[in-house]
Structure formats: C-alpha cells, structure tokens
C-alpha cells in the first residue's frame, strides 16, 4: 500500500523525536528511590551554547567614599523590596542602609543598642511580602521586625543555635539553615545518637513548626560540622532549595519537608572529605579541609536554580579559608551551574566576582565582597 505524503512527515517527525530524546537521555539519568527522583546529570542540556549572560549594573560601597553612607563595615546581607529599593545589612555599623534601585541613598535604619529597633550583633536580614524588615541578632537569637521606614514592630526570640541563613516565606513562616546543635558541641561521640536536622521552620511569632534534612554522620563532631554545611534558597511558592558545600548534592523540598528531587552532576575531580587528627594534647584538629564544591544557591525570575560551583580543586590545606583562596587563584574556576526547576543541568556561566555572600532576587544577582566592602549588582540577560 502506498503511503500518503503526510504519513512520511509523521514518520520523519517520530524518528526525529526519538533521536532527540536519545540525545537528551545521554545527558542525564533518573532513578526513583522511595518515590523521590534522583537525577544524575552527565552533561549540560544547553551544551556549549550559553542562553544567558550576566550584565554589570552597579557597585555600592568603597573603602574611602566621600559620603559615609556608602562606607560599610562588614556587609552581611542584602534584600530588595517590590519597588526595587535595596537594603544592605551593614553589620559592623549596626545599621541597615536603604538605597533606591539606582543606588541613591535613602535612609539609615537601626543603631547599636538594646532597645526597640537597636541591634547588638546583627547578622542576617530579609523582607516579608509587605516589605517589613527582619533582622536576625545573634545576641540572644532575636529577630527584630521593623517597617521599611525603620519603625519598630516587634522582637521575637527563637530557640535556634548557629544560624547560617534565613528567609521569610510568602506564608509568613521563617526558614532557618543551621548547623545541627550536636555538631556545635565538640568532643561528644555520635555513636547511636540522632543528629539534629539542619532546616527548621518557625512561625512569625517564633514558634518552631517542623524540622527536616538529616545530616550525614561522618563519625566525629568536627567532621559533621564541616562536611554537612549547606546553602539554601526559597522560591515564591515557598519551596526550599539546598546545595552542599562539600557534597555533590542539590535538593528541593516543599515547605512541609517533602523532598521533591535530589540531583548531582559530573565533576572534574574526586570529592574528598575532610580529615581530622589529634594534636599532642589529644584535641581534634583539621588535617585536610577537604573538597569545596558549592558556595551558594539562588532561584531566578524564571525558576532556574543557580549554584556557584568550583570546576577544579587545589592542593589540600588544613584551613577552609586558605583552601578557598587557592581555588580562586585558578582563573575562571568559579562558575554558576544553572539547573531548571526540576533539577536538570542546563549550562554554566562564569561567576564575575569573588564574593562572601550571594543573593538572587528576580533577574538580579547581588554579590557581597567583604574584601572591597562593596555590593555588586548584575542583571541576568536572556540571549
């Protein structure tokens, strides 16, 4: 029987579809374990074609500015409101500096002290959907809440130790990324003990609702503290994203703690755990800081996951900070690995700035560089 012309087109389409699926499948494999997708990324889906680039917007702060409002001391965090105003937590000066989207100074919020709206040890900051400012103060683990103009609203105490990051979700609940409490107390054996989960969810009044993400037990408090360090981000649907400083893992959770996927990727080096040893007094010391893989995570305006990742490793040292300095001596070594919202690796973009903290808000990436005591703003541009 003679095939009609449109039948040939259908056959050609099906062959092309099968071929494209085969090409795509070569770039990743997926396992389902306990109803959770485990994605093994072998190569970026974009290949060698970059579909985004980073465009410099502005720099705020310098060592010797003419205006003291641009002279910062220990920048710790950054937030942006719906109008595009930028808030910088200038922790060393016990204040929040507010600027408009063009970097024009608008206001100073807070000061050193123990009264309403005053800070003792400000460390982290975020905004809620109304634009109110939340500042974590390490002195007594307090959270100060102020209006965008700096008017004091309330102060809550939270029973969380060693907070690394925090975010105010759309629901009003608060996410804390923490070191598990046992790891903060050196010297205690872990055999037969349950390790403390690293993500904790609190309500807006300071009451803990739940906790999840069990740390890996590496056999000693010092190793557990070093090799379980995570970075977190939250999307507008209150999903929580996690990457690991020293483990080849990227994960996505609901705010209720359900794991939606885990992902890893091919690295150009072998992941090396930290190594500890006893000194002459029997005290545990780090002999080898181990591999450093990821140093942050963020979600952009299109739901893509950005993970700053080191592409090569350096000779081992006994200091994390010295080891990271060595990694930065390798040209172009720190890149953003970009993933879609399902955990599939799309491509890489070279990170333009060395940073101590990074936040992605909408189509902007903000880098805090505490060597130059500056904030750098870049725009994500589609190509």
Tell me what you see in this structure.
- The chain has 383 residues and is mostly beta strands.
- It has helices at residues 5-25, 221-227, 320-328, and strands at 28-33, 36-41, 52-60, 75-80, 86-90, 95-99, 105-109, 111-112, 118-119, 122-127, 133-137, 142-146, 152-157, 163-168, 174-178, 199-202, 208-212, 230-234, 240-244, 250-253, 259-265, 275-278, 284-288, 298-299, 305-310, 334-339, 345-350, 357-361, 364-369, 374-382.
- 10% of the residues lie in helices and 41% in strands.
- Strand 18 and strand 19 form a beta hairpin.
- Residues 15-24 and 183-191 have low confidence and may be disordered.
Report mean pLDDT, rounded to a whole number. 89
Rg on CA atoms, Å: 23 Å
Main sheet makeup = 6 strands, mixed
Question: Can you tell me the residue ranges where pLDDT is under 50 for at least 5 consecutive residues?
Answer: 15-24, 183-191
Helix coverage percent of residues?
Answer: under 10%
Percent of sequence in beta strands: 35-45%
Keywords:
single chain, 383 residues, mainly beta, Neuraminidase, 2 domains, four-stranded antiparallel β-sheet, 3 helices, 10% helix, globular
Describe how the helices and strands are arranged.
Layout: H1 5-25, E1 28-33, E2 36-41, E3 52-60, E4 75-80, E5 86-90, E6 95-99, E7 105-109, E8 111-112, E9 118-119, E10 122-127, E11 133-137, E12 142-146, E13 152-157, E14 163-168, E15 174-178, E16 199-202, E17 208-212, H2 221-227, E18 230-234, E19 240-244, E20 250-253, E21 259-265, E22 275-278, E23 284-288, E24 298-299, E25 305-310, H3 320-328, E26 334-339, E27 345-350, E28 357-361, E29 364-369, E30 374-382
């Amino acid at each position: 029987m003679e095939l009609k012309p449109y039948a040939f087109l259908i056959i050609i389409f099906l062959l092309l579809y099968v071929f494209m699926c085969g090409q795509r499948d070569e770039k990743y494999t997926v396992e389902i374990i306990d109803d959770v997708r485990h994605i093994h990324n072998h190569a970026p889906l974009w290949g060698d074609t970059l579909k985004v680039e980073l465009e410099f917007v502005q720099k705020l702060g310098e060592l010797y500015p003419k205006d003291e409002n641009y002279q910062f001391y220990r920048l710790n965090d950054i937030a942006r409101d719906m109008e595009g105003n930028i808030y910088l937590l200038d922790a060393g000066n016990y204040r929040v500096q507010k600027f408009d989207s063009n970097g024009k100074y608008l206001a100073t919020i807070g000061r050193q002290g123990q009264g309403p709206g005053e800070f003792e040890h400000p460390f982290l900051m975020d905004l809620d959907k109304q634009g109110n400012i939340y500042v974590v103060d390490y002195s007594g683990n307090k959270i100060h809440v102020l209006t965008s103009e700096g008017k004091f609203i309330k102060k809550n105490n939270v029973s969380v130790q060693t907070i690394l990051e925090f975010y105010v979700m759309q629901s009003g609940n608060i996410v804390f990324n923490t070191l598990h409490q046992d790891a903060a107390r050196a010297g205690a054996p872990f055999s037969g003990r349950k390790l403390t989960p690293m993500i904790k969810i609190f309500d807006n009044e300071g009451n803990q609702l739940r906790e999840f993400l069990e740390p890996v037990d590496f056999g000693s408090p010092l190793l557990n503290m070093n090799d379980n360090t995570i970075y977190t981000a939250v999307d507008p649907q209150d999903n929580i994203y996690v990457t690991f400083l020293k483990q080849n893992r990227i994960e996505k959770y609901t705010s209720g703690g359900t794991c939606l996927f885990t992902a890893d990727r091919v690295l150009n080096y072998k992941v090396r755990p930290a190594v500890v040893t006893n000194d002459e007094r029997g005290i545990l010391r780090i002999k080898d800081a181990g591999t450093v893989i990821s140093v942050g995570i963020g979600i952009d305006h299109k739901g893509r996951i950005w993970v700053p990742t080191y592409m090569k490793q350096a000779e081992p040292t006994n200091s994390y900070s010295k080891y990271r300095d060595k990694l930065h001596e390798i040209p172009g070594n720190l890149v953003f690995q970009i993933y879609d919202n399902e955990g599939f690796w799309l491509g890489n973009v070279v990170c333009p700035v060395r940073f101590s903290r990074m936040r992605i808000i909408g189509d902007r990436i903000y880098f805090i560089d505490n060597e130059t005591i500056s904030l750098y703003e870049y725009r994500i541009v589609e190509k």
